[in-house]
Amino acid sequence: MATYLICHGAWSGGWSWKKLRALLGTAGHEVFTPTYTGLGERAHLAHPLIDLDTHIEDVLGVIEYEDLHNFILVGHSYGGMVATGVADRVPERIRHLVYLDAFVPTDGQSLRDLASEAPPAERLEGWLIPPNPPAPDTAPEDLAWTVPRRRHQPARCFTQALRLTRGEPAFPRSYIHCTKKTGADVFRQFADRFRSDPSWRFHSLATSHSPNITAPETLAALLISAAG
Prior knowledge:
This protein is an alpha/beta fold. It has nine helices and eight strands.
């Protein structure tokens, strides 16, 4: 049995991994999908000072209070920023770090630095940034499930620079690139970097950006293989 700790993407929450929790649980694995402060069922806690460090601390709290060791850390999209910070704080507890179509920052970088373009000014609503539109291949029933649950995200999460204090980790890392997208693919930069890097394990998925919603069986099979 493996233990998975999942860092979800922007505007989302642990709820968006409901399908994966069921699939991985049926396969005998334990799954933790914490929701960051200010999002999902914790949206009532939103305030202008929430930033990337806040969300890193959210996940570190789960690791401490659930006493997690030897787990597979998964970062999806913005969750790659969070997972990188978590891994830098507690590398001795991590078995494998998986980036799922995610940002992979280095010391001093913010998500805004890594994005192909900053969110346009007209998308800012005070200190909050509204969600990106869902992938066009999202099924109607999944749209009915996900759209009402997505929440605006505090802008500081995207602009705060990540500070890392350790060098290259000793645990293995994987990058999963989702290739079925329309328009610009901000995550291709990481796919191009890690595809031929022997220190990384690289996988492509012919899915849109959130396979936890649109292709859960395919994603579950790949995550289970990572546990092996």
